[in-house]
């Protein structure tokens, strides 16, 4: 995972805000990234969200997070919502009352000033987010919630019910049960919080730390993972290092269950391209996109038999990403399917029942509604998962349209964040234009609808589309070709998400003139925006390692355990 390169490129591309509206089916195998790129153009048109492109935001890891009794979701890379237990302020809404309904963390407080949100992670009773801030000219980590072990990193041991800035110049943040670690843009690692098992990696154990502590001697790190009381770091050359508790052999050095290791030890095997840690086990992807797991396997979370203290391959399937959490593990494929294994007593594997699995089982996606946008861009009706997070008692996921789902009764079901879809879409002809009208959605979701975007396009692609944006329930798309038949689509946008109507049709009249608001093209930012995106691409190219140590994302994919 090119965390550092990806995040720096994110800042550049997000600053440019160049509209992106690629043709459906562009590329050899368009996936969730293509859908998010299209959706970014819609968000920018409304002004309700920064509309980070898929290239800016990177893969989906960290869009959802599952803690000990709470869950959170990043919506449209602009808003953060949390729900569940709140006795330590882990929901970040300024109070300590539990909430079954999502509360918007970004509605007030310092996090509300972020230009974009890239990831959220949840510990047992604390939460951390990675935010893009123009004032800081980079990425900043905020944490809130329980702090009895100093896991918030603010120099105190007092709980916080609102987000507090911990550190800047970050590239990634991960949370264990009661500790937190950050990857810096210099590719070094700092940790803070509980250290009874050496999970901070600072060479000693026993004393909790309330300020970030550097992990000595660890450089060139490109990915991090944190379990309940152990931590792992992936280096640029594919070597994987872990530290902390070695109960059940979760450090992966092949020595069996051992004493806690307060300094990094090298994991057997590799080279690896990604790492994820559950409560008592660890999993990683290699360059062939194969999954390997090690550590505790009493609930089937290793997905295999054999020595649990050394990495062992899980089946023969290729994965685009791994998510471990609690005593469960899930893998996401490049096509948007998912397979899970391990503990399932609360139905957290999303396979339709409550039986543990010792081998990967397909996630039941029947509860995921495939949006009109996904059908258009990807050309298929099958539900597409872009991200997934696993906890001790449930799993949450985001689909290609960034709609959020969590398990209930063993099945992924919609979290009521996004609005319902606009209905009764109709297009009345106008000279070189269409007057598009619709009925309001039956439900508004977690927040009121802030804007609608009506889009007109031709053929089976979205290239060359025109749009209009309004807070009403009708607007006119201008600049169309007279006599041409158009397909129309209406997006309802709120701080809780985006929904898409069924398709409508209309034919523009031949007479008259007009000008519309295109979603395609460089827009008002012109050459300056293009130059910034080009700079981001050059940075990606320059920072990518060469030769045998090169890490490659094995398959295209779409950031909690």
From TrEMBL:
Supply the source organism for this entry. Answer: Actinoplanes nipponensis
Which GO cellular component terms are attached?
Answer: cytoplasm
What GO MF terms are annotated?
A: guanyl-nucleotide exchange factor activity; hydrolase activity, acting on glycosyl bonds
Start and end residues of each Fibronectin type-III domain: 418-513
Question: What protein name is recorded for this chain?
Answer: Fibronectin type-III domain-containing protein
N-terminal signal peptide: 1-23
Keyword Transmembrane helix in the entry? The reply is: yes
Q: Name one Pfam family in it.
A: RCC1
Tell me the domain of life.
Answer: Bacteria
Q: Write out the transmembrane intervals.
A: 525-543
Q: Which GO terms describe its biological process?
A: polysaccharide catabolic process
The alphabetized UniProt keywords are: Carbohydrate metabolism, Glycosidase, Guanine-nucleotide releasing factor, Hydrolase, Membrane, Polysaccharide degradation, Repeat, Signal, Transmembrane, Transmembrane helix
Stored SUPFAM superfamilies: Fibronectin type III (SSF49265), RCC1/BLIP-II (SSF50985)
